[in-house]
Write a structure and sequence with these properties.
This protein has 144 residues and is α+β, with helices and mostly antiparallel strands. It contains 2 helices and 7 strands, in the order βαββββββα.
Length: 144
């Protein structure tokens, strides 16, 4: 499985605010400009749930599964692709420099190399901007 991690650290944000933003699946398009549409469908056992997302790079609406949900610490979801699976993990960690938010994107499966070439590299290259938008949106909430 090939993974790429990108982090940002800021004293302007806290875990609760970041958590509320990244786990609000219905509003992902407000901070991830590559998502046209996202909708939480249903909750399964515990905190695991299903959602639908239409991403600019996928051209279709696909179903994802929230796989890990550790309050204020980690949020992981999986999207099934033809011959591969895309995983996106959000980690939050308090440091002396502020809150560190890390987004790890990985893809596995026999066609992972193809999805990495066609889509994943572009998603990862947009991740720093996603993180900047997250920080900016939370900062703007505090200023209101």
């Amino acid at each position: 499985m090939k993974s790429r991690a990108i982090s940002v650290t800021s004293k302007l944000i806290d875990k609760k605010e970041v958590w509320e933003l990244i786990t609000d699946i219905d509003h992902w398009s407000e901070w991830d400009f590559n998502i046209e549409y996202s909708k939480y469908i249903e909750s399964k056992a515990g905190q695991v749930g299903l959602f639908k997302v239409k991403h600019h790079y996928f051209f279709i609406t696909i179903t994802g599964t929230v796989e890990e949900f550790r309050l204020y610490e980690q949020f992981t979801f999986r999207i099934g692709l033809a011959g591969a699976r895309l995983y996106r993990k959000y980690l939050m960690e308090d440091t002396r420099e502020g809150l560190k938010v890390t987004i790890i994107t990985s893809v596995s499966g026999f066609l992972a190399w193809l999805w990495n070439l066609l889509v994943i590299k572009r998603i990862v290259s947009d991740t720093p901007e996603d993180l900047a938008i997250i920080v900016e949106q939370i900062k703007n909430r505090y200023e209101k």
